[in-house]
Specification:
The complex is a heterodimer of chains A (145) and B (653). Chain A has 145 residues and is of the alpha/beta class. Chain A has five helices and four strands, in the order βαβαβαβαα. In chain A, helix 1 crosses helix 4 (110-127). Chain A is globular, with a radius of gyration of 15 Å. The two termini of chain A are 28 Å apart. Chain B has 653 residues and is α/β, with parallel strands linked by helices. Chain B folds into five domains: 5-130, Rossmann fold (3-Layer(aba) Sandwich); 144-236 and 319-334 and 501-568, FAD/NAD(P)-binding domain (3-Layer(bba) Sandwich); 250-307, no CATH class; 335-499, FAD/NAD(P)-binding domain (3-Layer(bba) Sandwich); 576-636, Alpha-Beta Plaits. Chain B is 28% helix and 25% strand. Chain B is built from 18 helices and 34 strands. Chain B has a five-stranded parallel beta sheet with strand order 10-7-6-18-29. A five-stranded parallel beta sheet of chain B has the order 20-27-21-22-23. In chain B, helix 6 crosses helix 7. The chains are: A alpha/beta (145), B alpha/beta (653). At the A-B interface, helix 1, strand 2, helix 2 and helix 3 of A face helix 4, helix 5, helix 17 and helix 18 of B.
Amino acid sequence: MFEPRIVCFFCKWCTYAGADLAGTSRKQYPPNGAVVRVNCTGRIDPQHVLWAFREGADGVLVGGCHPGDCHYEEGNHKTMRRVQYLKRMLEDMGVEPERLHLEWISAAEGEKLVHVMSDFTEEVRGLGPLELGLSDTAKAVAPAK
Amino acid sequence: MGERIGVFVCHCGTNIAGVVDVKRVAEELADYPGVAYSTDYTYMCSDPGQNLVKDAIKKHKLTGVIVAACSPTLHEATFRRAGTAAGMNQYQVEIANIREQCSWVHRDNKEAATEKAIRTIKIMVEKARLDEALDPISVPMTPRALVVGGGIAGIQAALDIANAGHEVVLVEKSASIGGHMAQLSETFPTLDCSQCIMTPKMVEVAQHPKVKLMTYSEVDDVSGYVGNFKVRIRKKAAYVNRDVCTGCGLCIEKCPATTPSEFDEQLADRKAIYTPFPQAVPNKPVLDAEHCTYFLKDGKCGICAKVCPLDCIDYEQKDEFIDFEVGAIVVATGYDLYPIENLGEYGGGKYPDVVTSLQFERMLSASGPTGGEILRPSDGEVPKEVVFLTCCGSRDTESHLPYCSKICCMYLTKHAMLYKHNVHEGQAYVFYMDVRTGGKGYEEFYTRAAEEDDVLYIRGKVSKIFEEDGKVMVWGVDTLSGKKIEIAADMAVLGLATIPNQSAAKLANMLKIHADEWGFLSEAHPKLRPVESLTPGFYLAGSAQGPKDIPESVAQASAAASKVAALFAETEYHREPIIAVIDEDTCAGCRVCVSVCPYDAAEFDDEKKVARIKEAICEGCGVCIAACPSGSAQQKNLTDEQLYKMVSAALEV
């Protein structure tokens, strides 16, 4: 079975704490994600997401605070707009926009985190491995890792 | 590259090692670029574990440390201290979370869990390779506390902080402090009079020279961070100049408009101009415009203004906003009862003789609407048989709330006992699921009720309550005998679930502190940091954090106060230096950062035509960094370069 590789950008105030809660509650979910903890989803540059896909991610999950709950006033609103814009760019580049997913998960929502991780893993599994199909020119100019 | 990273993989007993192959993890990391030393140990947080880290830092000349263990919220501070003790900069010590977000959640797939643990650690190694030595940012501390909520928890916290020598602003939304405890008749398990122990405290806090008491006031806005919060308090228009008012009560006496009293739980009326109860602190009235004839009928009335000997009535009064600077905030917003209307199966809100526990409390109170006599609300008769129901809304995963409200078993026992003391020939029944008596003297109290006061305890749940021929018919089952029970009672008292005060959700949102799915405020750690919020500078007291009885609320309030006093013992607060910084050489001066910063921490230098970050104000959200088109803005110890490398490590095969 295809095991997708997922990069999870989690805000430390909400989704990261929600993931901790899922742990203390001993809920089980697929191990396909690897978590990069950030202070706020507003820190995430669209380039970080593109880089993740370039480096072999089959899916990218961004977990932030519910609208109105941002620890830094409105970082999550900026993320919402950036993700929307990024999805359009991904489509232009031939990448299924569903491979990028934004979800609001609070520190209290351990259960929601489990569902999101499980559902997103299945969704990406359904999409199959991401084939970027870089042209030779693109490969030549791609920065070395 | 000269980095020498040490990796320390914790077993956490079997919590991690039972799922993750810790030996393999340590071995694989040993070969990872930049790693100079890698090992595993049973309990890394123990003294020998910490020593292992300290010794390795010195022996292997480490430039960074990764402790792969529990969540950073638990022991990041512990290992940063250990690192500092061994001469390392604390910001070069990092945690890889392989317990909460790995071994505990991937129990059934040990191979995948082990691989995820390896990836998780590699991510942090990549971060640590580029972590710089940083100094915390020192900011001045404002040694003044805001306490929100004037119930017993808020009062206790305010008193303890004030007695430690610090100023306190105590904000209460209603017209008097006292909270629910002021409504109670007696308290379990000692049956001492609640008013007798509560009112002296109310007076003490109001008269304390270090306490600024603000009743009929609400928190309107909070900004800033630990040590330097700016809070705006909205003093609601009371239409009474309470600074001049002596509380003579003439206005109350003459006021013609009435409405059900909140303090008496709707069992009696109060006037439109009122003090909530006779022992109110401050004992000065407020005018409730929603029920006042003057406001409802375009100025027709004005009796209170006419009778007031000191001209205190001011119909033109407006809400007033007062700003304070505080260093810490204690949230003690308390509880509400689960709405009785939600208990439709018991005729909640429909039958007058099916009452809430707080209504019964008011009936028992000597200063209550019945003067301490127990009388049926429907006809004023003394009830001969009263049924008390525990778990009304609590411990009911199907239709109500799953949690235990903790205090109902005991207060219903108290109610049944006091009913028997009042009505000697009466019969009290308590329907229970279990009688939970975890507290000093509680089990003895329950035994006394059952044995000395002949309270009949029936193990089982009531399925239905309905009215028939002036009786409250209670249908239930005695699950010990398996028999159906039908009681033609005169009254039923519902031990309604404890829910967080309904204003707390809005406040938690404003303060950006976490609450659980039921709205109870979340502590930083369930065992080791029970009175702190995860957000620095916020402390929790009383039943805002979870259902609690009085001794527990007082204990938690004192604990929160001692945390605040410890915080105020330093004249400066040291903030995380994980903030933004702008490279002036590459900054094009586009000012995007200035426009996106929520704190006005990014400023533009008109002379040099570059942007700059004000260190003392930047909170480190990183939103300007993601927005900077030239990459000139970076976050200290979470640069774009670090993030790219962390992402790559997350995807290593």
